[in-house]
Design a protein that fits this description.
Strand order of the largest sheet: 27-29-28-30-31-32-33
Distance between the termini: 65 Å
Largest sheet: 7 strands, mixed
Length: 883
């Protein structure tokens, strides 16, 4: 069954009429404020804003934006994580008659600077968290406004009236060329898009809409405005900081009624727990292809009254079509339905001529409500947007492949860019993928060219159940429906398909690998109850059957993310918490059972991750006190089997007391190191805090006359040295009078204040200090009333109820009081090029420590260099070790 309107009964729903699109977004929002002023508008991590409170905050910021600049249209760059601040900033910019350009703070300064140049932007809105990133990318004439430090503005000044056809935003997307392009759209078109969602999903003031997309992703537009322009509540969450299990809890706790994401994220949340989400009435999937497995999940895991809506929407068009899945469907593809109000769809061939129903071609959208075009890219605008001779709107070529069904419904079959040529024949991989999805044992399928032989196809499959499909069976099964050259030469089972930052399948990351084989006559199978419980968890995550208790989780296709899911489920079902680090010791069912029972000891001191090889061993302090250093598994693989890699994990991961300084940690680690290798030369390395501990171990070895041949520090900062004089002065003058505890607490407070003031101008600093002067007595009172106990901090491990939070705070406190002393040992610094502290700044501080510092810039951020960019990290590390 299909339709274009939700077959539901939402009593609060009020139809959004076409004449309501002839106004600005702030005008429509003001009507909701007048009607629903006390209703919740935004709920974010316990902070709830009513419509009136949100309007007041946005208006206050809008007046600050207008001060000295006027209401002339101009781009305002937004640098925010998802949350209340982003929504306030968005509304404020729109209230001024300017247009907003949301960018991802995780992008490198060079990427941000490129977009700033194209925009000619002279105004940035951000917050404390991302102020340094804004400074690093801004031009000399760019004004930066910090949302956390907005000065008072004249509340009597009137905000301008906005023309419906004025620009509302520019969203930057990355096309197949990799060059970002800015999609510009108007208030009128945004309101028409909200109208399409409102009327088709029957949205009303009693709804609570999820907002999982980052602000820089255009998918956020429909959720935030569909809520705020209908009197509903929008509930943001920062997905980058959450596990699927936590998101599942959030979804139920926040009583979400309308959920929206890409299919892969929906999949991971629904399978993370057994929750049913009784408040959920709509699940909206867009942004990537949904699979029949998603329909099965929806039917089996959610309440019967909840509808699954699969749709097509792009940044250039807004919502185009929707399919309401209201009953069992056995097709190999999930349709994206029929066009919604104001939209029409055609399927065009390579000559841009319409093709008959059932044939594959490029999806083209015809409407009066398409985006205005690409910012300062008239050539690209002419290429993708076409004027129509009958003046019924314009035509947009989406770059998506599709086909029309006999009933007028639409199938989405991937991207035109995904096509390739084999033996002179153009191949649409979606056709092969659709055929594979017709097999009952296949839940997801992606087909790519073989990396080694471009004349072969390779299929990556996520099994639908147990047992998985036999590789030998699939070619025979496909033969009646596909030509011989379209039958893949290899089939690889994977527990999950790799995803990019927006949750879409990342075809570029797929690489060749062997078919996963599990079980077998010689495999030891689960026998105890605990082994069987663990086996059940592994089967669910890996989509495999008959897993032997000595099979390695990562050899079976497990990833770091799936490992965190595994630990989530062990904690929720077995009421036992394990550190991720134990999986470095042993990632088998037998080993995990031993860790849970206490019969398999965990060696906190040294993990011989790769003990063999012809090269000198690298002793690596991985520094990941929350994630357990699981990235080291991939690091070891990429370094190669000839490079021994021995890990020294952060201390305290087993719940034992955490040493009070990095120097004390180094003393403990030195005992382990010399027990394993009594004499040098030594090769040491470490990431972040691990690099700082490696430095102190090198200092001790140097003092003992041992040779440190190589010392590699990765993303380890020495910038805290800028506070060493402040710390020394407080220690010298205050310790006798106040005691060490009070002196340390005063240093913490002053250090935090200095970090806050650093990016501000002298005038801004004076204003900030004047505003916060009243808080000084209460801060001092807190310092002297509740001093930290040094002895207690040393002896007590972090509370098990807040295990990760306790570790994080303990290590952050070690950072605050660590000032590396000069060391006459050459060191190699590897610095992520997207880190807010630039490589040049990092190098300057480390040159104060060592007379010889060799700098290598590696791709990524402080965290992503371990994940998406670990290949660049590993290549730099191997090059260093081979020198």
């Amino acid at each position: 069954m299909a339709g274009t309107v939700a077959p539901s009964d939402n009593p609060g729903f009020s139809r959004f009429d076409l004449d309501e699109t002839a106004q600005s977004i702030p005008a429509r929002f003001a009507k909701q404020v007048a009607r629903f002023g006390s209703h919740p508008a935004v709920c974010y991590v316990g902070d709830e804003l009513s419509y009136q409170e949100l309007a007041d905050r946005a208006a206050h910021l809008a007046r600050a934006l207008l001060a000295g600049r006027g209401a002339d249209p101009e781009p305002v760059v937004l640098l925010f994580d998802q949350g209340t601040g982003s929504l306030v900033a968005t509304l404020a910019v729109l209230m001024t008659g300017k247009f907003y350009v949301p960018l991802d703070p995780a992008q490198s300064p060079s990427e941000l600077a490129t977009i700033f140049t194209e925009l000619a932007a002279q105004l940035i809105l951000t917050d404390d968290t991302h102020y340094s990133s804004a400074r690093g990318a801004a031009g000399a004439d760019t004004k930066i406004l910090n949302l956390d430090r907005i000065p008072d503005a004249d509340t009597s000044s009137l905000l301008p009236e906005i023309d419906p056809d004025a620009l509302a935003y520019v969203f930057y997307t990355t096309g197949s060329t990799g060059r970002p392009k800015g999609v510009a759209d108007s208030h009128r078109n945004v309101l028409h898009n909200v109208m399409r969602y409102t009327n088709s999903l029957e949205l009303g003031p009693e709804d609570r809409l999820s907002l999982l997309q980052v602000p820089s992703f255009s998918g956020a537009v429909s959720s935030q405005f569909a809520a705020l322009l209908n009197g509903a509540c929008v509930v943001p969450v920062n997905v980058r900081e959450q596990t699927p299990a936590r998101l599942a809890g959030w979804l139920e706790r926040e009583r979400i009624t309308v959920y929206h994401s890409v299919p892969a994220l929906f999949r991971s949340i629904v399978t993370a727990t057994g929750r049913r989400y009784p408040d959920l009435r709509i699940v909206r999937l867009e942004g990537d292809r949904a699979s029949p497995g998603d329909l099965a999940l929806h039917r089996s895991r959610l309440e019967p009254h909840c509808l699954l809506v699969n749709g097509l929407g792009t940044t250039e068009t807004g919502l185009v079509s929707q399919h309401f899945a209201t009953g069992p469907e056995r097709a190999s593809t999930v349709p994206i339905g029929h066009p919604v109000e104001g939209m029409a769809v055609q399927i065009l061939d390579d000559r841009q001529q319409p093709v008959p129903a059932g044939e594959v071609g490029e999806i083209a959208v015809r409407s009066r409500y398409l985006a205005r075009g690409y910012w300062r890219r008239p050539d690209l605008t002419r290429e993708r947007f076409r004027d129509l001779p009958d003046e019924t709107g314009r035509l947009y070529l989406t770059g998506d492949l599709g086909r029309l069904r006999a009933d007028g419904g639409l199938d989405h079959l991937g991207r035109v860019d995904d096509r390739f040529e084999i033996a002179g024949r153009v191949v649409d991989p979606a056709i092969v993928e659709a055929a594979l999805l017709g097999h009952e044992a296949v839940a997801e399928a992606v087909v790519v060219q073989d990396n080694q032989d471009e004349q072969r196809l390779v299929a990556y499959l996520v099994p639908a159940g147990s047992p998985p499909a036999e590789a030998a069976e699939l070619p025979r099964w496909l033969a009646p429906t596909l030509p011989h050259e379209l039958i893949p030469a290899a089939f690889h089972l994977v527990p999950a398909l790799p995803l990019n930052a927006n949750g879409k399948v990342d075809r570029r990351r797929l690489a060749d690998g062997g078919l996963v084989t599990v079980g077998g006559a010689d495999a030891a199978m689960p026998t105890t109850l605990l082994q069987q419980q663990l086996d059940q968890i592994w089967q669910e995550l890996l989509h495999l059957d008959a897993i032997g208790i000595d099979h390695d989780f990562f050899d079976l296709g497990g990833t770091s993310l799936l490992a965190m899911h595994m630990l989530d489920r062990i904690e929720s079902r077995l009421r036992s918490r394990l550190s991720p680090s134990v999986l470095l010791e042993g990632a088998t069912i037998r080993a995990v059972e031993g860790f849970l029972l206490g019969t398999h000891g965990w060696n906190e001191a040294l993990v011989p991750l790769q003990p063999h090889g012809d090269r000198p061993p690298l002793y690596f302090f991985h520094g990941d006190y929350v994630g357990g250093g699981l990235y080291s598994l991939e690091l070891a693989r990429q370094l190669g089997s000839d490079q021994p890699l021995l890990l020294l994990p952060p201390l305290g991961l087993d719940g034992s007391p955490i040493p009070s300084s990095y120097q004390e940690m180094a003393t403990r680690h030195l005992e382990t190191l010399r027990a394993h290798r009594p004499h040098g030369p030594y090769h040491l390395g470490g990431h972040c805090n691990g690099g700082l501990v490696a430095l102190e171990v090198a200092r001790l070895l140097h003092q003992q006359g041992e040779q440190v041949e190589r010392l590699i520090l990765v993303a380890a900062s020495a910038a805290n040295l800028r506070f060493r004089q402040l710390h020394g002065a407080i220690r010298a003058t205050g310790q006798v009078a106040m005691g060490r505890g009070a002196g340390d607490e005063i240093f913490r407070q002053l250090r935090a204040l200095a970090i806050t003031l650093e990016p501000l101008s002298p005038r801004q600093r004076a204003a900030y200090l004047a505003r916060h002067a009243a808080r000084v007595p209460s801060v001092l009172q807190r310092v002297f009333r509740h001093l930290p106990s040094e002895a207690r901090r040393k002896s007590e491990p972090p509370a098990r109820t807040t295990w990760a939070e306790g570790l994080r705070e303990a290590y952050l406190d070690l950072d605050r009081f660590y000032f590396p002393a000069p060391l006459p040992v050459p060191l190699e610094l590897m610095w992520p090029h997207e880190d807010p502290e630039t490589a040049a700044e990092a190098l300057a501080w480390w040159r104060w420590v060592s007379p010889e510092v060799d700098l290598t810039v590696i791709p990524g951020t402080h965290i992503s260099c371990q994940l998406q960019h670990i290949d660049g990290f590993a290549a730099a590390l191997r090059a260093s070790l081979e020198r």
